[in-house]
Each structure stands twice: as C-alpha cells, then as structure tokens.
Design goal:
Elements lengths: L5 H17 L20 E6 L15 H17 L4 E7 L15 H4 L10 H11 L3 E6 L3 E3 L12 H4 L4 E4 L2 E4 L4 H17 L4 E4 L16 H7 L6 H23 L4 E4 L23 H5 L3 H6 L5 E2 L14 H12 L5 E6 L11 H4 L3 H9 L5 E6 L2 H6 L4 H9 L8
Parallel strand pairs: 1-2, 1-11, 2-3, 3-7, 7-8, 8-9, 9-10, 10-11
Antiparallel strand pairs: 4-6, 5-6
Helix pairs in contact: 1-4, 2-4, 6-8, 13-15
Length: about 425
C-alpha cells in the first residue's frame, strides 16, 4: 500500500469503518448473572502485543501491506487454533495504532513515533476479525508514556512534551501521573476516541496502573498529593482512589460512547496475600495489586465496575508460593454472584521444552490448567499470552489444549 497523507488516511479509515459496520456488530460475551442472561460459549482468546514489536508487527518499518498481511495471518492462526477472540494492543505507550485525534502514531509501526503508517491498523483489525467470527478487544495502557526516560525522544507535539508537569520518570521509563485529574481526563479521552470510531467488542486493560516497584526508585507524586490528597488516610489510599476513579469513569465513558462495548481488565493475579488480609488468597507473592500497584481489583469486581476480569495466573499447578488452582479458587469466589465474568490468563510463553521449571517442559501442563478451571462454573474462558507462542507452540502445549478442550470451533455468541 502506497504511503498516503492524513486526509487520505482518514478517507481510507472511513471506508474501513463502513466495512466494519457491515460485518458483525459489536458482540457481548457474558456468563450468567446480573450483567448477562443465558450462558454463552467459553471465551478463547489470545493477546497480541505490539509494544517492542513483541508479537506484531514483527519489526518496525515494514510496509503497510506486510503489516496487514502479518496481522491477517495472526487472525487466521486464531481461527485454526479454534479461538474466538483476539486482544490487540493498540495504545502501548501513550500512542495510537489508529489515526488518533489526540496522540501520535505508534513508533512500533514505522520505527518513528508520529509517522503515518499508510493504513488504519485498528480499523482493519476490527473488520478482518469480525469477518472471521472473532471478537476484537482493543488493549490500551492508560499511563505508560515511554519505555525510556528521555522526554526529548518523544515527538514535539506529544501531549507529554506539551504538558511536562503530567509526567513522572520512574525506573528508566516515563509515566503519566495518575494523581492529576487532568491526566485522568486526558487518557480517557484518548482511549474513548477509538471506542467512538470503531465497533469494538471490548476495551481491555492489562496490569499497568501505578508502576511495579523498582528497588531504590521513588515515584515522585509529592506535588500532586499535596494538591489533591488532603482528606485521605494515607498516600496509598489516595493512589487507590485515583485508580478506582479511573476505572469507574472509564466504564461510564465506554457505555456513553458506544453502549454494549464491554470493559475488561487483566491484572497481576494476586490482589493481596492472606497473611496480610484475611480476604486475600493463600499465596505468598512478593507483589500485590492492592498494595503495590494501587489497583483494588477485588473491589472493581465486587462493585460491578467491569464486565470481565482476566487475572494473569502465570504459575504452574503446585507452585509453592502462587499455586494455580489456589488462585483459580480465590478468583472464582471473588466473582461469584457479581455477574462479572472470570477469564484466566494463561502463560503459554512459559511452555518450553528447555524451561528451567519441570512443569513447563511438560506439554500437558497447560491442558491440566483448563481441566482444573473447568471444575469452577465461574470460569468463563481463557486468554493465552501471547500470539507468537500460539503460532510457534514450542513444546506442543497449545496443540494439546486444542486437542483436549477445543474439539470444535465455537463463536463468541
């Protein structure tokens, strides 16, 4: 595809949008409960990570035609593996995989941030996924700005350069400050731009809220806390309030922008350890979302602010600190009666004949995960990280899952 200017791109995007609208409308995946009606076939998804070109595109700077061909091949792989959903990362670092009105084109497309790639990846992905009977969940990262700490490497028109007061360097990266109401408003508008443009099936967030702790590093939000944190018992309470507010407001924004689009989050799988909180899981994780990422994931479920939660249960059965079944059991109890669907994030990337962990060398480990989860009616499906492992299947674990648990392909609904 020849390179086109922004006006031509927007015209092309309109054509893609028309094609999307002619395909299956945005569909709802749900289990049985307050938010849903009758049960539907289980969710079978895979994550497609674009940051650092993890899954797609395979390298920055490919032609538009090659990028699209790679994307279509991943969708076709999902069909061959009898999956029914793809979770595509479209805002990896405060940038966009669509012609955003608010943020620059992603550097992971062309190799240079802000450069028009000559096509509309998200619009095309929605259309091509729906043509194949796949749901398309658009995966956004709310606060990550860059995988480096040098603002001058961002394009001059980047909002983080226009508003340097919004940005906190931490752990060698740049983040928007979740404690600033103007930041919270902006990141929502940036994500909702895509919701308004395209008939997405869902908005999806992963585990990045406040950044993971880095030894010897301090996330300097002192000024924001002084300005906005009065009345809170602690800075930790204030930070959790900031993330709770983002989740609650985003849920309302999605519903207002395009009713029926679902909202899901895939957090680190340990909310709190039982030793610290009797409501927590019988785990001994070194990190907990409540205490370290200021993400009260249990509350989001219990309050019904999200439609599904997909905790990343990236440990094997029998792990001494974070046993897979222990966490499936805890999350099943957490969602029970809420109407929020439980999907399990599966560590396909760990399945490797050369793994240092014996369990992950066994091609049957992942299949056993699905057998364990099947004992819990609250588990509505699984999501595999990530797409390139779905393709490569280094030790045959994905093929084993398909043979044992996916005898036929099922549509999302």
């Amino acid at each position: 595809m020849a390179h086109i200017g922004r006006r031509g791109l927007l015209a092309g995007a309109a054509g893609v949008l028309a094609a999307v609208s002619a395909a299956a409308p945005a569909r709802a995946f749900h289990g049985q409960g307050a938010r849903g009606s009758a049960p539907v076939p289980a969710f079978r998804g895979m994550w497609v990570a674009s940051v650092e070109n993890v899954d797609w595109p395979s390298a920055a700077g490919l032609s538009a035609g090659d990028q699209e061909a790679e994307l279509v091949e991943l969708l076709d792989t999902a069909v061959r593996r009898r999956l029914n959903a793809v979770v595509l990362q479209v805002r990896p670092t405060a940038d966009a995989m669509w012609p955003s009105a608010l943020e620059p084109w992603s550097q992971w497309l062309t190799g240079r941030q802000g450069v028009d790639p000559g096509w509309d990846p998200l619009g095309t992905a929605v259309a091509r996924a729906h043509e194949r009977g796949l749901e398309l969940h658009a995966w956004f990262n709310p606060y990550r700005v860059a995988n480096h700490a040098n603002p001058s490497l961002l394009v001059p028109e980047h909002p983080a350069r226009l508003h340097p007061e919004w940005v906190v360097p931490y752990g060698g990266k740049l983040y928007y400050n979740p404690g600033l109401p103007e930041v919270r408003d902006f990141v929502q508008r940036a994500m909702l731009d895509a919701v308004r443009r395209y008939p997405l099936d869902a908005v999806h967030w992963d585990d990045y809220f406040y950044p993971y702790p880095v030894d010897g590093q301090y996330f300097d939000d002192d000024r924001a806390f002084e300005e906005h944190g009065s009345g809170f018992g602690s800075r930790a309470d204030w930070r959790r309030y900031n993330i709770d507010t983002l989740v609650r407001e985003m849920a309302a924004g999605i519903e207002a922008a395009r009713p029926g689009v679902r909202f899901g989050v895939s957090p680190f799988a340990v909310w709190r350890n039982e030793a610290k909180d009797p409501l927590g899981s019988a785990t001994q994780a070194g990190v907990a979302t409540y205490d370290d990422l200021y993400a009260d994931t249990r509350r989001w479920v219990r309050e019904g602010w999200i439609h599904y939660i997909a905790p990343q249960l990236y440990w094997q059965i029998g792990h001494p600190q974070c046993d897979y079944e222990t966490l499936v059991d805890w999350w099943s109890g957490t969602v029970r009666g809420t109407g929020v669907d439980l999907l399990i994030g599966e560590a396909l990337y760990r399945c490797d004949a050369d793994s240092a962990t014996e369990a992950w060398r066994d091609p049957a480990e992942l299949s056993r995960h699905l057998s364990v989860a099947a004992r819990y009616p609250e588990v509505r499906g699984h999501v595999y990280f990530s797409a390139k492992q779905v393709v490569a299947d280094r030790n045959g674990a994905m093929a084993r899952v398909v043979d044992d648990h996916y005898p036929t392909r099922v549509p999302p609904r």
